[in-house]
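Lab notebook, bench 4. Still working through the backlog of constructs that have no structural model yet. Next entry is a single chain of 176 residues. Request: give me the structure tokens for it.
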Amino acid sequence: MLIVLYENALLHVDIKFLTPDEFHHRVEDPTILWERDQVLTSIIEQSTAQYPPFDFQWAEDRFWIWTHYAALKVGRGEFFEAIDFLAFVRNAVLGPMLHLKNASLPRGVRRAETTFGPPELTRLRKTVSMPDRPTLLSSLWEVTYLYESLRDVLAPDTFQKNSAAQLAVTRYLASL
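Model written out:
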């Protein structure tokens, strides 16, 4: 990958170099600016771009551990570490779930402001915190509430909640 910054008007361009075999496995169909012998056009016609699906079980298996980690950081006064967790979980879990709820690709919080509805944006804003104990704890609770509500609506039938971990972590969070 080569990322180039041009001036007049300031623009950055991502240039990705792939072999034809690598091009078969892509997340989107790019604009082809140059090709030899219609090789890339042929591959696009013969294959389908597929964005990786969001893995609900992967998120559940980690979410409560991550939340406990963040709660520990708040308890220790490591507020900026906890703020980093909130950003991470928005990008890795909440944003993709909100995108799925809005029938778009699960790309973190990309274009959240134009994709999510006003009630969803209001809830997402509550997961942003300042580096102090009260607002961090409030934001952590909002993260758990939003995660639970999205999980319970969107997760597939094969999904398994980790109720024991959820109960232990929410009790711990309440003790702070």
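Notes after review: The chain has two domains: 2-46, 56-175. The mean pLDDT is 95. Flag for follow-up if needed.
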